[in-house]
């Protein structure tokens, strides 16, 4: 009798525990606090949905670039990942549209960036949620300019003007280098577009090396070789390996860092009162004064065993009040059209960071249409990798510039063929 009562109690206890509907794994890298914010919000979601477990796996950015595609190809990738380059893994994306209660809400508020996740203009899938809209731009050590008694370049200054100014400041203050650019084809692209690079033919085919691209590439390689730019950032790494220059800037080893709005939280936290810094307008060229748009998205993958639950979580994150909180927690520019128009985000930023955010928002209005076209193209990853790899070889003297241009063209011919394009 006692055994039966005990068994009944166990069965009652088991019956009272809700069955687990889904275990969702998110692979996440963070520029500042994006993964931490995702964990915070996921905990609240799980409290309201106890049958769903969400785990956030924090990884370096290089893992997203190199390991994630391999895992997806092997069929053992995560359910969701935070990514910035979409083309190489688009084939694995899960279309959330069939599982969303209101797909029109997504189109109305995220339409401009949803296109970046689609393989072609005819595709109408909804494959992920933009967790930030980013804008590239120069972050400048204002204190060093003041110590050198050198005026900051005007808003319409060219890249040549900035190179001359930061070199003068570096020499006057005994700082090793005038500037550094993140080792990224994305960072290079805004400057190249400003000098006339179009990246595509009129019918949309990739044509990376043109006169505008060459105009900026020749400058950039020269600046690396004459010490204006910190050669270690691009020259010390191999292949398409990403490397930022944040530590060099934070340690006052460079005067200007070509980075972007995703670093605002990190700049505020890690530099503190060490020196005064500002975000300057993107330098100009003869064609534009453009940076590059971008951002990260939480994308879902077809191999998930829980597509409904994955969509439910992302739909909840996309809701206006939750999304506004996410932007505030991460100090990012919203990709949500409604929030862009009427605000509603309560940032906890210092006065310098607030001013920097305003400058990035102003820069967003000046971005070239070519920059948006480039960011949304499925071959973007191949373009950026070829740019970094071949220009680094030119910086190191392994290739001449003409040889680097030929290699980039050959790399893209191969990438187009691999993608099944003509």
Tell me about this structure.
By secondary structure, the protein is of the alpha/beta class. It has two domains: 22-133 and 295-347, 3-Layer(aba) Sandwich (D-Maltodextrin-Binding Protein, domain 2), CATH 3.40.190; 135-293 and 360-418, D-Maltodextrin-Binding Protein, domain 2 (3-Layer(aba) Sandwich). The protein has helices at residues 2-16, 34-48, 61-74, 103-114, 142-148, 159-173, 185-194, 211-226, 231-235, 246-250, 264-271, 307-318, 320-330, 337-342, 351-364, 369-375, 380-395, 401-418, and strands at residues 22-28, 52-58, 80-83, 128-130, 134-141, 177-181, 254-260, 277-279, 293-294, 297-300. A five-stranded mixed beta sheet has the order 2-1-3-10-4. Strands 5, 6, 7, 8 and 9 form a five-stranded mixed beta sheet that branches. Helix 5 (142-148) packs across helix 6 (159-173), helix 7 (185-194) packs across helix 17 (380-395) and helix 17 (380-395) runs antiparallel to helix 18 (401-418). The termini are far apart.
């Amino acid at each position: 009798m006692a055994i039966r009562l005990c068994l009944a109690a166990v069965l009652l206890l088991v019956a009272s525990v809700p069955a687990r509907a889904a275990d969702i794994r998110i692979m996440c890298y963070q520029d500042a606090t994006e993964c931490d914010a995702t964990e915070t919000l996921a905990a609240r979601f799980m409290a309201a949905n106890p049958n769903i477990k969400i785990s956030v796996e924090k990884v370096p950015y290089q893992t997203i670039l190199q390991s994630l595609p391999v895992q997806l190809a092997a069929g053992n990738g995560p359910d969701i990942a935070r990514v910035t380059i979409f083309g190489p893994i688009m084939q694995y994306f899960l279309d959330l549209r069939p599982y969303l209660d209101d797909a029109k809400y997504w189109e109305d508020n995220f339409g401009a960036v949803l296109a970046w996740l689609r393989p072609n203009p005819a595709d109408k899938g909804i494959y992920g949620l933009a967790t930030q809209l980013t804008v590239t731009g120069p972050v400048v050590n204002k204190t060093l300019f003041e110590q050198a008694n050198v005026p900051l370049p005007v808003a319409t200054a060219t890249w040549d003007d900035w190179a001359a100014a930061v070199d003068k400041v570096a020499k006057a203050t005994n700082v090793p280098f005038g500037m550094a650019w993140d080792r990224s084809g994305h960072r290079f692209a805004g400057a190249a577009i400003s000098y006339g690079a179009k990246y595509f033919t009129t019918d949309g085919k990739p044509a990376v090396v043109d006169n505008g691209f060459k105009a900026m590439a020749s400058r950039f390689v020269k600046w690396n070789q004459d010490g204006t730019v910190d050669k270690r950032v691009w020259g010390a790494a191999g292949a398409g390996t990403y490397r930022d220059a944040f530590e060099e800037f934070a340690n006052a080893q460079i005067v200007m860092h070509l980075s972007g709005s995703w670093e605002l939280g990190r700049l505020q936290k890690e530099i503190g009162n060490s020196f005064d810094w500002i975000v300057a307008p993107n330098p100009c060229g003869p064609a534009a004064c453009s940076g590059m748009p971008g951002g990260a998205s939480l994308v879902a993958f077809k191999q998930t065993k829980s597509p409904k639950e994955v969509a439910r979580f992302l739909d909840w994150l996309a809701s206006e009040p939750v999304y506004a909180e996410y932007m505030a927690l991460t100090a990012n520019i919203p990709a949500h059209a409604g929030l862009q128009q009427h605000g509603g985000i309560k940032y906890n930023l210092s006065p310098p960071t607030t001013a920097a955010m305003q400058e990035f928002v102003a820069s967003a209005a000046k971005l070239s249409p070519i920059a948006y076209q480039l960011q949304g193209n499925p071959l973007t990853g191949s373009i950026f990798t070829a740019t970094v790899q071949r220009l680094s070889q030119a910086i190191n003297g392994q290739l001449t510039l003409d040889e680097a241009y030929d290699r980039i063209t050959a790399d893209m011919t191969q990438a187009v063929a691999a993608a099944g394009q003509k």
